Amino acid sequence: MAISPTPTYLFLLSLFTLSLFLSIPTAESESELVADLLALQSESKSGVIHLDDRTIAKFLTSPQTPRPYSIFIFFDATQLHDKSELHLPELRREFALVASSFITNHNHSNTKLFFADIEFRESQSSFQLFGVNSLPHIRLVGPNAKSLKDDSDQMDQSDFSRLSESMAEFVESRTKLTVGPIHRPPILSKTQMGLIVALLLISAPFVAKKIFSGETFLHDPNIWLSGAIFVYFFSVSGAMHNIIRKMPMFLLDRNDPSKLIFFYQGSGMQLGAEGFAVGFLYTVVGLLLAIVTHILVHVKNAKAKRAVMISAICVSFWAVQKVILLDNWKTGYRIHGFWPSSWN
């Protein structure tokens, strides 16, 4: 005797079939999104996907959370590339370097994290959606981010100084994924290296002959003297700081763009011009000290010695005073003199 299905059984069977039917397109849509991202990634030389308002809606706002991927986004504006203080082109290159290194280190098989950029003129709506009103700006949108502005993680601008390394650390701390080593392109190509080696081999006999005969510029004491002065100036002027931090020589006055700012008041920043100015004053003091200790001692005229000594002391006192006053104006700290207690 056949068993007729009950209404409850038919209802549960229909509900299960419907849920199974609805779940299949969702899984397919997620896989299609990942496949589309991989395709866009493969079309980019650096692996950075270029997004706009349409693709932001497709990959971030339309899919339901949790999404099967995270997107690390660099916000760009080509009209601001000439603003040297923003360093947008350099940061964009470092961002692309992190993207290509991440893809290479994962053998082009990672589907959990993608790198992308957005340009302001093309995607002003997306900039508003993220709440971006200043650049540089880098943001990570995780799988569970529903609100792109409130739920995504913004990278602090103070971390940009270490460039690609700080970007990689930010990604690793937020996604728990390993970026791996940063693969920077070599300074010289193989062809350039080959040409340099060939030139060195060809010129080696001629250079050796000059060295053994003492006819090179390295045998000139004035060259070593100039080099020593340059190294001293380079050390005390903060030139290495300017190179590492990419500091500008000056800034434009925001209140009056026709004016230039060479000295920045505040301990958190030093412009190239003020570093060179202080380095010049230090170099003057150092040269005067060298003149007094190495040249003046050979002068036989006592009056000339006294005149040069007094002039050196006065100029050195003026230079050191300028450095102290500049430090006090810049940082607010004062240098106090300490006299012997018996003088009080």
TrEMBL record:
Keywords: Endoplasmic reticulum, Membrane, Signal, Transmembrane, Transmembrane helix. It is a multi-pass membrane protein. The keyword Glycosyltransferase does not apply. The keyword Acetylation does not apply. Pfam families: OST3_OST6. The chain crosses the membrane at residues 193-212, 224-244, 276-296, 308-326. Residues 1-29 form the signal peptide. Gene3D superfamilies: Glutaredoxin (3.40.30.10). InterPro entries: OligosaccharylTrfase_OST3/OST6. It is found in: Endoplasmic reticulum membrane. Subunit of the oligosaccharyl transferase (OST) complex that catalyzes the initial transfer of a defined glycan (Glc(3)Man(9)GlcNAc(2) in eukaryotes) from the lipid carrier dolichol-pyrophosphate to an asparagine residue within an Asn-X-Ser/Thr consensus motif in nascent polypeptide chains, the first step in protein N-glycosylation. N-glycosylation occurs cotranslationally and the complex associates with the Sec61 complex at the channel-forming translocon complex that mediates protein translocation across the endoplasmic reticulum (ER). All subunits are required for a maximal enzyme activity. Belongs to the OST3/OST6 family. This is Dolichyl-diphosphooligosaccharide--protein glycosyltransferase subunit 3B. It comes from Hibiscus sabdariffa (roselle).
